[in-house]
Amino acid sequence: MLKKYYSGGNEAGTDEAGRGCLAGPVTAAAVILPEKFQNNILNDSKQLSEHKRNLLRPIIEENATHFGVCHIFEKEIDKINILNASILAMHRSLDKLENKPTLILVDGNRFKPYYNVPYKCIVKGDSKYMSIAAASVLAKTYRDEYMLKLHEEFPMYNWVKNKGYPTKEHREAIRKYGLTKYHRKSFKQLPEQLTLEI
After folding, report:
1. Which end of the chain is more exposed for a tag (fewer CB within 10 A), N or C?
2. Cβ proximity of 175 and 190 under 8 Å
3. Of 123, 103, 127, residue with least CA distance to 3
């Protein structure tokens, strides 16, 4: 059973999706849920089917007190590295909240101060707190939706299925077709990679 609050009040949960991908953005969301919010399906997005995530997204958006979602794209990831990009995505999603939270609950163990708002890093927080789980669902569904659009432009990588993650199929396509403008050039795209024609 997910907990509603860490300490009570106007808490925002934040999480990211796509950190380990070879292509596409890293996407983060921040969510403040009302005290009355209840949902028996809500959980860490990785524990949910795509169908359940897509069912939950409008429920979260309609019931959240506030929410924000942000993509950080490949060029910025390559410039500042994936950890900094993930944290920046969380910060920018927090920027979109109309109400400043009293506490930020962060999934994972790394974060940087967000103005003067106190924060708490929680390992596997998306399976412990409702606001982080809600943020994980929004981050995942928004990112997946974006990758479907990229798939239309480059169908040979099958991003509709792998969403840019380093599957065997995705890497075989990179070996055959090379890199696109959406691939993260700072990432090791192929296991045997020394240099890769771009």
Report:
1. N
2. yes
3. 127
* Residue 167 CB-density burial (10 A; 0-12 exposed, 13-18 middle, 19+ buried): middle
Q: What is the pLDDT of residue 49?
A: 95
Helix (H) or strand (E) holding 34: none
Q: Token digits for 43? A: 């959980």
Q: How many Cα atoms occupy the beta-carbon half-sphere of 160 within 13 Å?
A: 8
The rounded distance, in Å, linking the Cα atoms of 198 and 195 is 9
C-alpha 129/C-alpha 157 separation (Å) is 35
Please choose, from the candidates 19, 32, 22, 3, the residue with its C-alpha nearest in 3D space to the C-alpha of residue 140. 19
In angstroms, how far is the first alpha carbon of the chain from the final one? Answer: 47
Strands (E), 33-118: 66-72, 103-107
pLDDT tens string 101-152: 999 999 999 999 999 999 999 999 999 999 999 999 999 999 999 999 999 9
State the greatest distance between any 2 C-alpha atoms of the chain, in Å, as a whole number.
54
Residue 79 Cα to chain centre, angstroms: 19
Reported as type and span, the H/E element at residue 7 is none
Q: HSE (CB half, 13 Å, CA atoms) of 88?
A: 14
Q: Counting every residue, how long is the chain?
A: 198
Give CA–CA dist 34/65, Å, rounded. Answer: 6
